[in-house]
Automatic annotation (TrEMBL), chain A:
Pfam family name, one: GMC_oxred_C
Start and end residues of each Glucose-methanol-choline oxidoreductase N-terminal domain: 236-351
Name recorded for this polypeptide: GMC family oxidoreductase
Family label: Belongs to the GMC oxidoreductase family.
Amino acid sequence: MTDDTSRPARPDVLIIGGGWAGSIMAKELTEAGLNVTMLERGHDHSTAVEGTYPASIDELRGVARKRLFQKLSRTSLTIRNRPDQTALPYRQLAAFLPGEGVGGAGLHWSGCHFRATEDDLRLRSVTAERYGENFIPEDMHLQDYGVSYEELEPFFDKAEKVFGTSGEASSVRGQKTGKGNIFAPDRSDHFPLPPMADTFSASVFRAATTDTGYHPFSMPAANASQPYTNPYGCQMGPCNFCGYCSGYACYLYSKASPNVNILPALRRDRRFTLITEAQVLEIMLDDTRKKATGVRYVDLKTRSEKTLEADLVILSAFQLHNVHLMLVSGIGTPYNPVTRTGTIGRNFTYQTITSSRIWLPEDRFTNQFVGAGGAGVAIDDFNQPSFDRGKAGFIGGSPIWVNQSGLKPIAAAQSSGGKEAPRWGSTYKSAMIDQYRHSFAIDAHGSNMAYRDVYLDLDPTWTNAYGQPMLRMTFTWKDNDIRMNQHVVSHIGEIAQAMGATRTSLNSLQPGQSFDSRVYQTTHLNGGVIMGENPKTSALNRYLQSWDVPNLFVIGSSAFPQGMGYNPTGLVAALAYWSAHHIRRTYLRNPGPMVSA
Amino acid sequence: MSAPLSRRGFMGGAASLSSIPLLSHAAQAEPDSRPQKTPDASDPAQYRPTFFNQEEYLFLCHACERIFPQDENGPGAQALGVPRFIDRQMNTPYGFGDLWYMKPPFQEGPPELGYQLPYSPRDLYRGAITPINTHCLMVHDALFAVLPPEQQDAVLRDMESNRLRFNDIPGATFFEQLRTNTLEGAFSDPAYGGNHGMEGWKMMGFPGARADFMDWINQDGAPYPFGPIGMPPRPDPYSPAFQNDEES
Ligand SMILES: Cc1cc2nc3c(=O)[nH]c(=O)nc-3n(C[C@H](O)[C@H](O)[C@H](O)COP(=O)(O)OP(=O)(O)OC[C@H]3O[C@@H](n4cnc5c(N)ncnc54)[C@H](O)[C@@H]3O)c2cc1C
Ligand code: SF4
């Protein structure tokens, strides 16, 4: 790595954002022989500093005081549920927790590492084929990605090998293993590491779902079940189920992160330059507005504005910031929900998630503090292709899982009570302690479709610390997704019974329920700069190249046309490798649009 | 302290406040089985607040205790040092609202859109406690701290359900701030001033900073056998050195 002062005057490539997407692109493009400069708004982060024990496992400093998350004091966004409301600023982090600093949210993610399925990637086509075009509601912007599972398979495989993912294959080059997720598509290879062990709660769920005729499998986890060295020579140690994945940096080099799995290799490369505390304000365009010339950014160390030029710009600042930078840079046409034209901000989606809870008898202890972010047992019976949505009356689906990732006491205490039960006082205290010791959560973690009046644009009122308009989110839950969630959750009761639950609290989305920004859900935000086959309905072509500015590639879950049942990062990483592969193979030889509009 | 403070007594000045016991009678009556030693600097009862004034701190002690009371499960907020924790948190970037997006304009909206007041945690406590006491004096003729527990609970319930409002601070907003900080104080590392003696963690069955469960991934529902350990010694989290280590 060259430092800030000795870097080449003009890099070939500028990468905005140092998370998973940016790090993968930087690795691939330096391998292609290019000089790459990565700009990251936050500080540098490493296991040796942010990951040191015990500071890394301090719940107050970590999740309660948002140590690794986006600094809202500098920039946030505004949120409303409906277009007729005034959106108000997201003043306190709660519903989602974007990252800041090298590694991005990839430093404090959990590690559930899924591949997308063929159905996820061709959702409009498969829905129309199976249930007819009329099954798709008029206001739903259901779309295909424009890339098939078969095309992406080598890149899913590559990402798993880089991440050191633990899991159990079901079908490898057509050979059934008799294990794993029987609904998962065929793979070119096994997971690099064997599956994570089942916690007690996961083993109870595995037994009960087997008994009730479902098809449990070990969740693929980017937590190392064994020591591992990835193709970049980066090393991981075995995970000890310390329980501090989600919201924290792993102190054991066991959870995959850009910081552990990619950056150690990049930092050794002379062609790679990292500039931290560089807040990119804008992607600059030339007079034709069809070519990016570089970026304008604030150097937060000197508080001065600077520009950098390059031939190729990679925007990988996370979903929300990708959309924001496209809008403030004036690239593409902002989406208009009235005319349904324009693409930037269109098809913004999230993840439906509801946590239900079951209690076991008093002599069974669930030790909920034990866990790993990606470990657990899931069933895909309500997420797989042949599950009949026609009968159920919705599009989408949810895996159900017990993903005991390590529940800390502040979080446990804050989330106890409510729904009729007291949230404080002596009765609360007893119930909270009982809940901590003897219960566990079962999640329905589902898809979220795109709708005409759910979108992102720029806020007319509130600005960030750099004087720019902030992003405005218009988002709420819609009937199709509420029905989907309710249907899936309705099956948890029988599983709970089979687990010997003494008490069950089922939670599902309710008709008319608005999205609540005060409650953590997931940081699985999608869309707004989506990929596709038609420049009228997508901002990027199937190689994640901007239709409007061909030397700009926008990498991240911002490219997803809709939210799938699984967590996003496995697909984010595969799409990054897919895009990089085609940049290397095609674009660099002949820079220009890789698909004609 | 037998007779509740009258409104006149309250108006009469802070001197009269010092005579209200910090611990409720129930908490005081609890026998201390540990051998009596010389005064313990870490004893939460010895703590002198630096942010809260006497009236505010007294309120805090009693309100936290109702939210997280001493009972058969174990100590309550006061014995755990929760008020001390909250006082110390007020002098951190968090207390000053530096972790929040605080740019104007400020405008109220539906609850789902979240917190919309121009106030930091310091401002919230400073702005709400005196009006709460005034409310208690008007309705019950006594400060919150000296009300019987049932009446204290009733006031807290009226806050929680947003039936009360203290100037422009909705009761529910302040209640959530207080509940959040109380539970943080009960369960954060003792270095922060609460969770005294790791009693909060012991009550929950949380083993503290162990963070290694290689042998306990699945013991078929047996309880984890080891009690908590605290974080190994490290810089005082309130020292400038530690705060500088935080990202600004
Ligand atoms: C608590 C938590 C748990 C999660 N668990 C899972 C999980 O189990 N499985 C899963 O698949 N996903 C999970 N995720 C989501 C996952 O973290 C993201 O999908 C992933 O990190 C996205 O990678 P990215 O590179 O697109 O963005 P990021 O990792 O967020 O990186 C973007 C980077 O860009 C920087 N940046 C932003 N704007 C600018 C700017 N203007 N100038 C310069 N730099 C900028 C940011 O500071 C950041 O470092 C989780 C997320 C969170 C928060
Ligand atoms: S649970 Fe495992 S992967 Fe997660 S932080 Fe702990 S050691 Fe790391």
